[in-house]
Amino acid sequence: MRNKFLQFISRRFKKNETALHELMYLFWECTRRCNLKCLHCGSDCTADCEIPDMPFDDFLKAILPLKEMYKPNTITVAITGGEPILRKDLPECGKKLRENGFRWGIVTNGYDYTPDIHDRLLGAGMGSLTLSLDGLEPSHNWLRANNKSFTRAVKALDLITASTRLNYDVVTCVNQKNIDELEKLRKFLISRNVKAWRLFTIAPIGRAADNEILQLTPPQLKQLMEFIVRSRADKRMAVTFSCEAWLGDYELAARDTYFFCRAGIQIASVLTDGSISACPNINRDFVQGNIYRDNFADVWNNRFEIMRDRRWTKTGICLDCKDYKNCLGGAMHLWNGKKDGIMTCINQKIESVR
Question: In this structure, are residues 333 and 279 in contact, taking their beta carbons and an 8 Å threshold?
């Protein structure tokens, strides 16, 4: 009875937040270039990507009207890519964001995260950082397709954890290669003074679309949930599952709050070519506009209906799902642009092994 009441409150909360759609988190895909060629990359980024980096002044001009709508320090700009460290002007970009009142942070693979760039980014006002570490050395290097990646990521990790004023977390993409070493990885992260760890499954998009070893089997998904529940009892490091899907009986056991895909509701993105969307991994067919022809604030206020009214997702395996009212079709990045099929359903896979 208590769970049903809490779920009812959560649904009301999500409905109210959707109606308000106040922007809180803005991704800027500043480059499609990357120093790695990871097996699971949803954007299929490469070092020699022909798509040019977006000039920072173009991005800043597009988002400045937000200062008239919100207090800018209520919006966090998450600079992503590709690998944002490859931009030589990254500290200057961050400094200008702070000068205009915006909070900002980066998402990085840590490969080129040196002490010099660390100091320059902190000096430019960087307040948050997400670092990827996808297993112990062999499995991390396998996923990142580079035998130096683990060593370099750990060096970056030590710089990050030593910075007391930086809000950070480590993210791990869980797959069939690393599922059985998560406990060893957890202990390793605690030994490096990591305080926050998020675990993901890998969506079958981009390079991951045809690589079955990247997808967990239903028993492995249940194994992952049980691992997270056990790990959360150890308060030395906060452990949580990402916002990918409704988890059924594991809701509030594997994460702090009920599932809520905020894409297009509180999260937007500006992609390298100027496209306006929500999370960068969402299918490009869901793009809502472009900063080179549209006013960003107008697009945010008056479009994104496809993400704010998700009744269209009640089809296929979602049609008769008893949890649909809580899930609303799962995360937007799990749907293709034709709106005619969901790629996966974590909860149904977990329930299938009961």
Answer: yes
CB atoms within 10 A of CB 319: 9
Q: Which helix (H) or strand (E) holds 169?
A: strand 167-174
Three-state secondary structure call for residue 167:
strand
Comparing C-alpha atoms, which of 203, 288, 242 is closest to residue 23? Answer: 288
| Predicted confidence pLDDT, tens digits, the chain (354 residues) | 788 999 999 999 999 999 999 999 999 999 999 999 999 886 655 555 678 999 999 999 999 999 999 988 899 999 999 999 999 999 999 999 999 999 999 999 999 999 999 999 999 999 999 999 999 999 999 999 999 999 999 999 999 999 998 999 999 999 999 999 999 999 999 999 999 999 999 988 777 778 889 999 999 999 999 999 999 999 999 999 998 889 999 999 999 999 999 999 999 999 999 999 999 989 999 999 999 999 999 999 999 999 999 999 998 889 999 999 999 999 998 888 766 656 668 878 888 876
* Whole-angstrom distance, CA of residue 156 vs CA of residue 136: 15
